[in-house]
Amino acid sequence: DVSYEVDLFGRVKRNIEAARGDVQAAAADADAVRVAVVSDTVRAYADAAASALQIAVAERTVALLDRATRVTAARVVAGRSQKLDELRIAALRDQRRADVPPLIAAREAALFRLATLTGRTPRDLPAFVAAAAVLPHIDQAIPVGDGRALIARRPDVRAAERRLAGDTARIGVATADLYPRIQLGGQIGSTSAGLSDVIGGGPLRWLLGPLISWTFPNTSATRARIAGAEAQTQVSLAAFDGTILIALRETETALSAYRHELERRQTLVSARDLAERAARVTIARQREGTIDFLTVLDAQRTLADAQADLAASDRRLAFAQVDLFRALGGGWQRESGAAQARADAGGFWMR
After folding, report:
1. Total-model pTM
2. Domain shared by 198 and 265, yes or no
């Protein structure tokens, strides 16, 4: 038996379009998962590296204050400083020392997240990852582009557009059911009078016949399905519009955060450089005997605070880059599916 449906009213064509839209939406969803995994992995690595930098700064500050405490204690014994100075410096040292354990815990938590995202146990992380102390950064121009280019890159927008295309095609499927469905078929076979004819070479009779069937629609039920398909398309259209607005909002927010953190970091770099110059000057003047050790200590503490602020800014800047990468849709586009997606999305897709 063979059969063929004559697609006079586009039912089969629209079914194919709807199925293609579903497949491409699923592929875009897979791209979105890839972008999310990459973003979370880089963020966990950046968190671990930033925590390591902050730990190093905090430990240097503690070492500086510990040395200052010992020097001040010796000056108290020699009668050149007051006991109050020693207590104040010791209290500040302990405060800075208390900052270290939370940073260590944050680093370990980041490494645990990184291990989970890479499918490993924490002990199985490579040594260079476990000792990470260099923040990742985007080493090429960020492809911001315009709004249409953003729509092309973001997998969630592509998925929403493909779902809208599929639901729109289903309106055509439902509408085609208003018209008769014509199927052409045929049958070819043989018959015999009995088993002995088949075995003994008796006469066989061959049959060859066409088959034309018509299916007449139930108009009321079909119109209800059309209304349902149109309503679903409106839902998909609203979801598509909402996805675009969310994409634009997230991109503008990420760009703003990244831009302002860059400006803040530049100011902090200047503050760190000035603090380093001040620290060098105070050390030189102390050797000349023109200032006391507490002035040197104050300059060193200012430098340590500037370094800590810069390390915290580097952390936020790394996170801002990850957020911007994610908001712009990442870079996950399989080339085999990219051309087809561009062809189907039409004006929605621009490189």
Report:
1. 0.73
2. no
* 166-169 contact pairs (CB < 8 A, 24+): 166/17, 166/18, 166/19, 166/20, 166/21, 166/22, 166/25, 167/18, 167/21, 167/229, 167/232, 167/233, 167/235, 167/236, 168/233, 168/236, 169/14, 169/15, 169/17, 169/18, 169/21
% of the chain with per-residue pLDDT over 90: 38
Question: What is the DSSP secondary structure assignment for residue 180, as one 8-state letter?
Answer: -
Cross-strand pairs, 189: 207
Share of residues in the chain with pLDDT > 70 (%): 77
DSSP-derived letter for residue 328 is T
**pLDDT per residue as tens digits for the range 294-334:** 788 888 889 888 998 998 999 999 999 899 888 888 764 44
193 with 173, same domain: the answer is no
Find, among 298, 305, 268, the residue nearest to 283 by Cα.
Answer: 298
Number of domains in the chain: 2
**146 and 201 assigned to the same domain:** no
Residue 173's alpha-carbon distances to 170, 178, 236, 250, 333, in angstroms, are 5, 10, 17, 36, 30
* Same domain, residue pair 144 and 227: yes
